[in-house]
Amino acid sequence: QVQLVESGGGLVQAGGSLRLSCAASGLTFSWYTMGWFRPAPGKEREFVVRISRNGITTYHADSVKGRFTISRDNAKNTVYLQMNSLEPEDTAVYYCAASTRVTGRTVSEYDYWGQGTQVTVSS
Q1: How far is CA 33 from CA 4, 14, 116, in A?
Q2: What are the pLDDT tens digits along the chain (123 aa)?
Q3: How crowded is residue 9: how many other Cβ atoms within 10 Å of its Cβ?
Q4: Residue 51 burial by CB count (10 A; 0-12/13-18/19+): exposed, middle or buried?
Q5: What is the dihedral of CA 67, 71, 76, 78, to 10 degrees?
Q6: Dihedral, CA of residue 2, residue 4, residue 30 and residue 80, to nearest 10
Q7: Around 60, how many Cα atoms within 13 Å sit in the side-chain half-sphere?
């Protein structure tokens, strides 16, 4: 049974930082591209960032480029999202997801999902 469990969310002031973690089990973690998503107006979830299986290649949405950094530790089956310079518009539930595809920016391209962790940024 595949499980993705996010943690690290919370309340932070604008300009602050948070580090999210997503611990995976029940799958061969290094075989999966990992991504982070969040809800957006008019969409079920919008793509935030993804990282390749070996951790070398990342791809960011324009809205978070330069502020958010994704990384992974395949030995620990964990992917991280370092969020800096947070803005109130970043307030959302953040979901991690796993995909067997090499690339992916849409919900349908991801096979497994976590339950999400709430991030709230106050102004």
Answers
A1: 13, 30, 18
A2: 999 999 999 999 999 999 999 999 999 999 999 999 999 888 889 999 999 999 999 999 999 999 999 999 999 999 999 999 999 999 999 999 999 999 889 999 999 999 999 999 999
A3: 19
A4: buried
A5: 60
A6: 180
A7: 13
CA angle 109, 106, 55 (to 5 degrees): 70
Task: List the structure tokens of 50.
Answer: 């993804």
For tokens 């997503």, what's the residue? 22
Distance between CA 28 and CA 18 in Å, rounded?
A: 27
**Rounded to an integer, what distance in angstroms lies between the CA atom of residue 54 and that of residue 16?**
29
Consecutive H or E run containing 112: strand 112-113
